[in-house]
Specification:
By secondary structure, the protein is an alpha+beta fold. About 40% of the residues lie in helices and about 15% in strands. Bound molecules: adenosine-5'-triphosphate and magnesium ion.
């Protein structure tokens, strides 16, 4: 089992000034930052990242949203990282997210839901490598 996951603080949360507060929640939950950067995805790169959702009706909206402003991408380390981080961020739809979760606190809707978390160890590695070279992962 891997002990790493990958996250992005999405453009909605960046715009609202929640980056620092979200990083603090991540830190308080015991995750170590193994890589981090702020960047603005092109529509092409956002589409590539979410290619798995290409056939879904919300794909166009998702690509537009994810490329509309800066994000913060990070690789996080902790025991049981993937599962524990999904618990910390809460359900995809903030209306269904548990109290105290990052999406409950900071997300507005199912589309603009503040933060991404990898859904498997394999995807965590693929997604981390999408953003960070080996020299940038500590
Ligand atoms: P993420 O992969 O970003 O961590 P998730 O795993 O909780 O989110 P997915 O099913 O992988 O959810 O969907 C990826 C993203 O696509 C969601 O986070 C959200 O931004 C967007 N999305 C998902 N479902 C919808 C929907 N019904 N309408 C609009 N956008 C959606
Ligand atoms: Mg997902």
């Amino acid at each position: 089992m891997s002990n790493r996951t990958f996250t992005m603080i999405k453009p909605d949360a960046t715009e609202k000034g929640y980056t620092g507060a979200i990083l603090e929640k991540i830190n308080a939950a015991g995750f170590r930052i193994a890589a981090i950067k702020m960047l603005h995805l092109s529509a092409e790169k956002a589409g590539e990242f979410y290619a798995v959702h290409k056939e879904r009706p919300f794909y166009g909206e998702l690509v537009e949203f994810m490329s509309r402003g800066p994000i913060t991408a990070a690789i996080l380390e902790k025991e049981n990282a993937v599962e524990d981080f999904r618990k910390l961020i809460g359900a995809t739809n903030p209306a269904q997210a548990a109290e105290g979760t990052i999406r409950k606190l900071y997300a507005a809707s199912v589309g603009e839901n503040a933060i991404h978390g990898s859904d498997s160890d394999e995807n965590a590695r693929i997604e981390g490598d999408f953003f960070f070279s080996k020299l940038e992962q500590f």
